[in-house]
User: Which sequence fits this backbone?
């Protein structure tokens, strides 16, 4: 591979951690003998166009510096191209970095790890999920958790996973279960009343919530966690177990596994992949 690689940076990720993380990550890569250039963007569309240009021009690797949103954006540029992808975690949730086994908020260590992998050819293929023409690496959320994710992403404080805890409490008051139609591998159909349905390529979202604890990035399958109709009190009791991944033995929860999943729910707030772009300023 060429020795020139590209840092794809969201400087506003993690309240400015993205900009700060780029410098030590770039230094570690340069110390390892790589030529590093940086790509920014004014908005998601502009940033993605710039990243795709870097890939088309033959960059050896595209290294996302930021959170889950930046990682997701970078994936859109590299999928199907053969260009290597790396990630320096500098966001709020960093769930995709967790799934990849990358250091969290240690940009110099992440840079050294990526440099070692590139020099020694220690790269691996992973699975991705796809919704329409959009790829995702971690978890697709629908129903209650989609609402929580939206609210949490709009909150500036507190930092880290606690914002999602507060967002969940705020959303509990109004949310009601939805009638879902779930189709597995184009054949089996399940119709259920569900509080949420999470489709996991990776195990966690929301800063370490292991909603799909058995999800494996390399098994060719998606894990589907279905939380059935349950009371607010039950949801509050079960919720703390999500961080340990021990919630799946609760009778209200069903875990499915398939290569393709169809979701339909009347009145659903939509699906989200746990990703966000903070406008570059």
Assistant:
């Amino acid at each position: 591979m060429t020795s020139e690689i590209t840092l794809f940076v969201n400087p506003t990720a993690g309240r400015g951690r993205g900009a700060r993380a780029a410098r030590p990550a770039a230094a570690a890569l340069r110390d390892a003998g790589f030529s590093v250039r940086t790509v920014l963007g004014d908005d998601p569309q502009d940033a993605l166009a710039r990243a795709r240009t870097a890939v088309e021009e033959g960059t050896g690797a595209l290294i996302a510096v930021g959170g889950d949103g930046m990682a997701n954006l970078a994936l859109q540029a590299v999928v199907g191209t053969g260009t290597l992808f790396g990630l320096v975690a500098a966001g709020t949730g960093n769930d995709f970095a967790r799934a990849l086994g990358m250091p969290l908020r240690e940009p110099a260590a992440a840079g050294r790890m990526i440099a070692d992998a590139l020099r020694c050819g220690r790269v691996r293929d992973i699975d991705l999920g796809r919704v329409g023409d959009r790829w995702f690496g971690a978890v697709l959320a629908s129903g209650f958790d989609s609402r929580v994710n939206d609210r949490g992403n709009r909150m500036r404080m507190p930092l880290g996973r606690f914002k999602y805890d507060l967002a969940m409490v705020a959303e509990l008051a109004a949310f009601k279960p939805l009638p879902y139609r779930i189709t597995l591998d184009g054949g089996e159909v399940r119709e259920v009343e569900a509080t949420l349905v999470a489709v996991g390529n990776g195990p966690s979202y929301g800063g370490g919530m292991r909603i799909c604890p058995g999800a494996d990035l390399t098994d060719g399958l998606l894990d589907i966690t279905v939380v059935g109709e349950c009371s607010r009190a039950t949801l509050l009791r079960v919720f703390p177990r999500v961080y340990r991944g021990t919630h799946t033995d609760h009778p209200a929860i069903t875990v499915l596994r398939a290569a393709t999943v169809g979701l339909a729910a009347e009145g659903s707030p939509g699906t989200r992949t746990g990703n966000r772009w903070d406008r570059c300023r």
Q: What stands out?
A: The first strand starts at residue 4 and ends at 9. The helical segments are 17-31, 44-56, 68-78, 95-100, 107-120, 144-154, 162-172, 232-238. Confidence is low (pLDDT under 50) at residues 272-281. The two ends are 33 Å apart (CA to CA).
